[in-house]
Specification:
The protein has five helices and four strands; from the N terminus they run E-H-H-E-E-H-H-E-H. With 101 residues, it is an alpha+beta fold. The two termini are 25 Å apart. The relative contact order is 0.27.
Amino acid sequence: MGLYGIYGSHPAELCPWNNAESRKVILEHGLTIVEEASKVNIKIINQYHSALEHTFLWVVEANDAHLVQSFLTTSYLSKINALKIVPLITYSDVIEYCKKL
């Protein structure tokens, strides 16, 4: 399983705090996203949001980035956010790699 960061952002006008339609989508689907991801073999490890910057970072485990992409394109997240998927490693992995150099 690989580790991936999902970086998302939306304009202030589409923020669920400012937009009733976006808020409705979040309230309808937000509580089930972890379960839905799990059904397609994606484990959501954590979800971080910066409300005033209208950005977020979710950390997930999946077999590959294309699986994450496929899931995101069918989820509510792609309806109001620009999304980017980035492969990640842990800091301890960085240290171990440096030891081998």
